[in-house]
Design a protein that fits this description.
Radius of gyration: 23 Å
Helix content: 25-40%
Structural class: alpha/beta
Number of helices: 15
Strand content: 15-25%
Low-confidence stretches: 367-391, 427-441
Distance between the termini: 25 Å
Largest sheet: 9 strands, mixed
Shape: globular
Number of strands: 21
CATH class of the largest domain: Alpha Beta
CATH topology of the largest domain: TIM Barrel
CATH superfamily of the largest domain: Aldolase class I
Amino acid sequence: MSHDEPGFGVYIHWPFCAQKCPYCDFNSHVRFGGWDEPRYLAAYKRELDHTAHLIAGKPRTVSSIFFGGGTPSLMKPETVAAILDHIGALWPVAPGAEITLEANPGSVEAARFAGYRAAGVNRVSIGVQSLRDADLKRLGRIHSVDEAKAAVAIAHRTFDRVSFDLIYARPEQTLESWRDELAEALAMARGHLSLYQLTIEPETRFADLYAKGRLVIPAAQDAHDLYELTQELTAASGLAQYEISNHARPGEESRHNLLYWRYHEYVGVGPGAHGRLNAPDAHLATMTERNPERWLALVEEKGHGIADTESLSPAARADEMLLMGLRLDEGLDLDALARIGGVAPRPTVVSGLMSQDLIERLPARAASSEPGLDEIRACLGPGLAPAGVARPAPLGRIRATKAGRFLLNQLVLELSAGFDPVTPALHHDECAAMDNRPAAH
């Protein structure tokens, strides 16, 4: 997926888990009595219908679909198939679109994976989290290392694209032990690996233990050393770091996550799902009701479970794009930021952060070779032909350095506070769209 390709994704949140992990702050819920899956399926379809109506008017093609959770591998393959069929009835789905399903090793079996593949899933992401049984128990996981390895092996036999997750900077973890464990993981991995430092999230069981001094995690410098070792070993194995915690061989990056980080449009459906939608009259941030039963009741009553909708100003969109883009190794495209938010970071702020080795400038992407696009057309007014002007110098890209990635939130605050307004020139097709004239190429 090229950087400039307009993405449109659909995220489906499945909220149920077999057990709540003590480090997890995702919207996940345990229901020992089970759930009425046909009823939830009907609700997913209704909320998809509502969202399609909300953004109607502009043709879209789905480039990625992601089933996240929770534990989506607790869903029946027939449910996944029905949701995918319904998405395909609402929007065209691109040939070769990435369709990912998250799975936990304890809920993996060959027949179930074959069912997901038959339903249309072509990529799985498995929550392994550790290759040490003692640490799996400490992390609250209910699978063993042997089960995790078996799940990854089944996935490789079933799907063309497979990823799995590990958590590091765990209590009592040393550089030597992580080196051995990561080497073992890299031998299992093929195209993609997600490696997350353990974070103490508010309102989790780990946060309570940490506050009471009963959970000790590596000090900041030790965590930094573990991070550096992670980059060293993944790079040596050919899995380049394309985002702070994600590593892939070229072409194996998670297209759906890139859609988020590049700040493209996506639908969020299901309990606690977020969306970013380009409605006819506004750019919307949506969030659905988090409690599964309340969400279900809302959908059955109103046709959707959206609990909060915010119309995003250009400034808010610029802040979000800044936060997302700085996570990427490819950096943040300042020309895209100018188009979306009408702002650019003040040069003195950028140079100051560069002098501290927290961000770096990258060259602008090569200009399009498409005829007619090597010139910018400035809009003179409705109904008036655009005037040709020379292409302005591109603003280029910036990205966080290795040191800056540890201070990402602070970088976002400083860059955002130093935004200056800019008025980006428009291509002549964008100009024509302002007064519904056909674009002349």
